Amino acid sequence: MSNSTATVYFVTGASRGIGLGFAKQLVERPNAVVFAGVRNPAALNKHFPHPPSNFHVVQCDVTSDDSVSAAVEVVSRTAGRVDVLINNAAIENGLDIRDTSVDSFRSVLETNVVGVHRTTRAFMPLVLKSSVKKVINMSSNFGSIALNDRSICGAYNTSKAALNMLTVQYKNEYAKEGVVFVPMHPGDVIPRSRGTLIFRYLQT
Amino acid sequence: MNTDDTTISTAESVAGMMKVIDALKITDAGKYWTNEGTFLPW
Q: Whole-prediction pTM value?
């Protein structure tokens, strides 16, 4: 594949929600090569019945070292670099913090924080081969300590605050290599009062 | 923060973020960006 002038994107959690939204819009761009990381590749079939040649579905479970390593291998073989890494995969347990078991808390942080570290760390060699070098960590205003005056989705909010700090650590360490790390709030796609309810669908 | 339940569509959110991502420079690193190209307080 000739993609020296293309922009290579890797998006995690691309089977629904914002990740799917990225996949759908990026694939429409001229000169984009899009890798959609999903736990279950079959989940994307209905959204892309006739996948264009610049679209690649990659099995990528951010909670698994083996799965992430295999995804890196596929992207390395196919494109040789990642220009823009979008760490979007996340879960939510739909619970107040007082009702959140330790196991559930751990599970949310495993995907939303550890998963981003796992994915970023594994993909950095491919990001460093790019001349673009952008890493977008999907955060949320729910992760803002300054703005958080109402506790719903306590584990999720905690995970996004931790993700913000993780992003800053990466940014500090990779500034001299020219990598642009940012946490990003997607906008108010979730009505605040219904946040818990709507988040539940993420947890399948 | 969203206090009035006003929401945007996923497509609108993503379109905004892609515009922000396209324009990111190294001096923009480590800021708490929004889909509208503004910043949030930590």
A: 0.92
